[in-house]
Every structure is written in C-alpha cells, then in structure tokens.
C-alpha cells in the first residue's frame, strides 16, 4: 500500500466551495456535492489514488456546471462543446461532461445540424458554405448531409439576395465576370450565378443601380 495523507482541515471558501488540506498543506477545493458524496472529514486517511479520484470527481462536476452554463446561452453540437470545455479541463473530464449533457437530452447533434443549416440558409449562404461551416463545428458528415437535404436545393433565391446586398454597384460598373467569380468563391454554381446576374441586368429597375 502506498503512502497515505491525513486530512487536517476542510474549510468553506467565499465562493461556496471547500478547501481540502492534507498534512497541513492545501491540496485543492471541491464543490459541496462532491464533498458530501465522498463523506470526507477531518482526520481521514486517504491514499494518493483516493485523493486523485476526489479531485477528478470535483473537476467533472465543475465541467458539467460549465457545460450547463454554455448550453443556457445557446445551442451547441457535442464536438463544439467538447472543444470549448477542453480549454478549461482535460480531455477525459470534458468528455464526461459532454456525455452527461447527452444523457440529459441537452445535446442533439442531428437537431443542431438542422437548425444551424436553416439559420445559415437564411443568411444567404450557399449549400457549399453551409456544409463547410457545419463540418468545421465537428458535426458528423452524415448528419450534415441530412441537414442539407432538408434545405431548398435551388440556390437562385440565395444568390439574388447576396447580389442585392453586396454586388449591385459592381454590376452597374459592368463588372459582371468579377461578380460571377465572387459568387463562385462563395460556393454557388457558376451556372446559377450567371443566371441570377443576367436576371438583374435585364431588370430596368436594378440594371442602373
């Protein structure tokens, strides 16, 4: 059996946590629930493994609380939430918190992908752009493709919206090919981009703007 450490003090902090002291030295602080579940009290003898278990349980509880805070502000995909938690916790602790959020039905990657895709479509993003943004969030490719399949596949409306917002003045200057190229870089097909540009140029109300 390895060395043990005697718990010499358990002191409440101003933030409602509890500082743990062993052999007269501060170890770390834990939340009230973790402390209660552990049954820890002054005078107890703990092995180093037991101390690390206590620390890990407290870290997991903190990670879960932080995950709940994040999810109260906006929706997340599981990979995005995991990456954000990893900024403050180790990989194992972050994964445990994400698993708990999934168990509580607070994470649903399929629904998140659908809602995010719909939002981006409303922002006049091309299907290509939407796909790239969803994949960048760590979402499963199959879920991404399912979300895209639920969107209108005709991108003419989105292209017209982008032209109205950003490119009318360039069309008025005769920069047709540059506008088509700019739209293509955003992931719109050149064929649909040319059709939308031609539509604007043939409309007397917009051609001279």
From TrEMBL:
Location of this chain's protein in the cell: Cytoplasm
Family annotation (InterPro entries): RecX_HTH_1st, Regulatory_RecX, WH-like_DNA-bd_sf
GO biological process: regulation of DNA repair
Main location: cytoplasm
Alphabetized UniProt keyword annotations: Cytoplasm
Top-level taxon in the UniProt lineage: Bacteria
Any one Pfam family match given in the protein's UniProt record, by short name: RecX_HTH1
HAMAP family with a match to the protein in the record: RecX
Family: Belongs to the RecX family.
Full protein name: Regulatory protein RecX
Species of origin: Anaerofilum hominis
Lineage: Bacteria, Bacillati, Bacillota, Clostridia, Eubacteriales
